[in-house]
Amino acid sequence: MDGVENGTSRERIHFHITSWYDEVEDFDNAEIGLVNYSSAAWQLSSYIPLASATFIYVGCGRAIYTLDLNKTATTPGGFRNRVEVLVCNYGPVDRTAPRQLYKLGRPGLCPSGTFPSDRYQSLCKIVQDSSFLNKSSRRFQVRNRQQISNTSTVRTVSLSQLLLLLYLTMQLPLHCR
């Protein structure tokens, strides 16, 4: 959660994701082996989901709100009263047993159910069965997006896509499976 000051929306999102990644400084290297995903420490960490080899989906939502309703973005000092929150949920998570944080092997080695991406070097693409979507349901989804274009939306993307975005926008080390 941060105050919204100057900067574009993209710059502020960049700031949030960078701050999550910067938690690598607080990460104990002794924990590189098994990670207990049911522990409170994991649930408070933002770095582990970014680095984990087992998470393949992320859904994010962003909200900006005003702390003092008497001041708005158009009043002097109004931006200092606005707060921005970016929250992401990662998955799939199996909290029943500790799991390896990283998968051993060659970077970009694609696990079962995935194959090398033609578009992004060293990243894997998920084999998705979209046969359950027919053309009418796709049109409905697009129409709904257009109707709510002025509101916040939540999208689910591949974790590989998020890592690629991090790499391209911030030149962070690219962790691949």
Topology:
Blueprint: E1 2-3, H1 9-21, E2 34-35, H2 40-44, H3 47-51, E3 57-66, E4 82-91, E5 99-100, E6 114-116, E7 124-126, H4 135-147, E8 155-158, H5 159-170
Antiparallel strand pairs: 1-4, 2-5, 3-4, 3-8, 6-7
Structural class: alpha+beta
This entry's quaternary arrangement is: single chain
Outline: globular
- Spatial separation of the terminal alpha carbons: 30 Å
Helical proportion, percent range? 25-40%
How is the biggest beta sheet arranged? 4 strands, antiparallel
Would you mind describing this structure in some detail?
Mean pLDDT is 65; it is low at 130-157 and 170-177. Helix content is 27%, strand content 20%. The protein contains 5 helices and 8 strands; from the N terminus they run βαβααβββββαβα. With 177 residues, it is α+β, with helices and mostly antiparallel strands. The strands form 3 sheets. The protein has a 4-stranded antiparallel sheet. A two-stranded antiparallel sheet has the order 2-5. The chain has a two-stranded antiparallel ribbon with strand order 6-7. Strand 6 and strand 7 form a beta hairpin. The chain has helices spanning 9-21, 40-44, 47-51, 135-147, 159-170; strands at residues 2-3, 34-35, 57-66, 82-91, 99-100, 114-116, 124-126, 155-158.
